[in-house]
Amino acid sequence: MTEWDVKKLRILRTLRDRGTVTATAEALLMTPSAVSQQLTNLAKQLGVDLLEAQGRRVRLTDAAHLVLRHAEAVFAQLERAEAELTGYLRGEAGEVRVAAFSTAVPALVVPAVRLLRAGERPGPDVRVREAEAAQAYDLLTAGEVDLALSLAAHAPTARDPRFRLFPLLADPLDVALPADHPLAGAPALRLADLAADRWIFGGSGPWSEITTAACEAAGFVPEQAHSAAGWTAILALVEAGMGVALVPRMAARERREDVVMRVLETDRPRRHVVAAVRHGAESGAAVARVLAALTETARSFPETVQQN
Fold first, then answer.
1. CB 181 within 8 A of CB 92
2. What is the pLDDT averaged over residues 168-177?
3. Which residue ranges does the record assign to the HTH lysR-type domain (predicted)?
């Protein structure tokens, strides 16, 4: 029977995800020569070529992709086994490491932790790490966190065998206007009514893409007057009359006295929030309880619209 070495399979999977031997070595805290040697040994054990030269780099062969398709089921089963063993050794409490984007920490993670602490049974020890989507999934893949919260537009596809995704909520986007804006009190405000305004949003990343996509869906390309990523900075610029901005309702706690928040009932822009775990880890008692608390928190969120 062919010998399947889980450690070497993880190296092969990391090479697929990272793209180069050097990046794989850095991710796994190995030397490039050690990575190459381990993969050479794995190829000998399996009796197939796993890598082929492509210029100065290497790429995975079809046989390597076939091996990894089956290996993903092994990894998922090992995650389930580790989750069950952790639950057995630590009881249902355990520890769950969560990576979440900035507005999700106070809006979802903190209320979920409070909900767990208020229960009759001891809740898991939740460790929080603020991270945007790309970093959160790198951390999840590397085993440095157990659960990631991100926007659906920047999450892996549901077909990715490494992860299990759980939709949480759809967060409406309201428009922030200076209090003296001519349309601050206008009835039935639409995004198209603000096509000639100066806009404030990040220079790159998820929020830039969300803002431009919402405006383009309304028929115009927003003129970016100022670039800012944090809600404190964005709303301060709006308050000063320097432009308008889309703001998620989850970030409503940052509101300022001289900023008017208007609901866009006609356009109804949304950003969708999802939770993700490594496939198989959702069966662990501690992770399952944190997921349940996050789901309950999302359902009770008074100013958001739930996903179907």
1. no
2. 93
3. 4-61
Longest dimension (CA), the chain: 76
Q: Could you tell me if 161 and 284 lie in one domain? A: yes
Closest CA to 259 of 235, 243, 242: 235
Beta bridge pairs of residue 170:
272, 305
Angle (nearest 5°) at CA 136 between 119 and 63 = 120
Number of compact structural domains in the chain: 3
Residue 236 domain-assigned (yes or no):
yes
Q: Are residues 144 and 282 in the same domain?
A: yes
Spatial separation of the C-alpha atoms in residues 217 and 191, rounded to whole Å: 9
| Amino acid type, 19 | G
How far apart, in Å, are the Cα atoms of 211 and each of 33, 89, 128, 188, 269? 45, 47, 27, 20, 9
With residue 298 as reference, give the H or E element that holds it.
Answer: helix 285-299
Tell me the backbone φ, ψ of residue 74, rounded to 5 degrees: -65, -45
Judged by DSSP in three states, 162 sits in: coil
- What letters, b where the CB count within 10 A reaches 16 and e where it falls short, cover 212-248? bebbeebeeebebebebbebeebbbbbbeeebbbbbb
The HSE-up count of residue 189 (CA atoms within 13 Å, CB side) is: 19
Q: pLDDT per residue over 112-157, tens digit each?
A: 999 998 877 777 889 999 998 778 988 998 899 999 999 888 777 7
Strand partners, 224: 199
Are residues 154 and 97 part of one domain? yes
CATH number at residue 236: 3.40.190.10
The pTM assigned to this predicted structure is 0.69
For β-strands 223-226 and 198-200, DSSP reports them as parallel
Alpha-helix runs per DSSP H in 91-230? 104, 110-118, 133-141, 206-217
Q: Which of the listed residues 43, 74, 105 is the one where a domain comes to its end?
A: 74
pLDDT of residue 307: 45
- The token pair that represents 27 in the structure block: 């991710």
